[in-house]
Amino acid sequence: xxxxxxxxxxxxxxxxxxxxxxx
Amino acid sequence: xxxxxxxxxxxxxxxxxxxxxxxxxxxxxxxxxxxxxxxxxxxxxxxxxxxxxxxxxxxxxxxxxxxxxxxxxxxxxxxxxxxxxxxxxxxxxxxxxxxxxxxxxxxxxxxxxxxxxxxxxxxxxxxxxxxxxxxxxxxxxxxxxxxxxxxxxxxxxxxxxxxxxxxxxxxxxxxxxxxxxxxxxxxxxxxxxxxxxxxxxxxxxxxxxxx
Lengths: 23, 211
Prior knowledge:
The complex is a heterodimer. By secondary structure, chain A is α+β, with helices and mostly antiparallel strands. Chain A contains one helix and one strand, in the order βα. Chain B is mainly α. Chain B has helices at about 15-20, 25-45, 95-110, 125-135, 170-175, 185-210, and strands at about 10, 60-65, 70, 115-120. Chain B has a three-stranded antiparallel beta sheet. In chain B, β2 (about 60-65) and β3 (about 70) form a beta hairpin. Chain B is globular and about 50 Å long. The interface of A and B includes residues 6, 8, 9 and 23 of A.
């Protein structure tokens, strides 16, 4: 219980992480 | 023994992330968005000053009863008493608050990951955050109608899909649409946040005791 299961991928420059980090 | 364990009524999202040392899960992200927008709508209904931007996960509070509020507001979303108040607090538009909430929720999902790593979110949640953080400002022609605000989000218009998020209500509609039955949203998301608080509090109490 409590352990999140999620996949991790390499960051893409066009991905949501890149967009959010620019804000 | 003998160490006093402080009973808390609320925990910040930052405390939750730190205690678990891991990100929140997707269901918690949906729930925090829904509950937070619910309390922000309640503030609008009471015609209280708008909330400021969410600067960090420390600004988001998850309460024992499953309510989620921003800043120093109480579980009912009411501002703290006292003449000092927060009148000088920078006032933000609804869309600015939603954008900042989306960014902080994304960061909570991404917590602990390296800069070059990205968590693979389910498409609906990624779309929600994308909508929240890529919003256009409302042009003011759409009347939100404060008197029409109610606790839930179920009315005829809720059958429509949200294309552009312009209000807290739009966020709540998207979160409700994520569930098999939209009308379950208030009860379901409150229960998820209540469980998040209870589980974290259990860990917090346990860690405090073994200290």
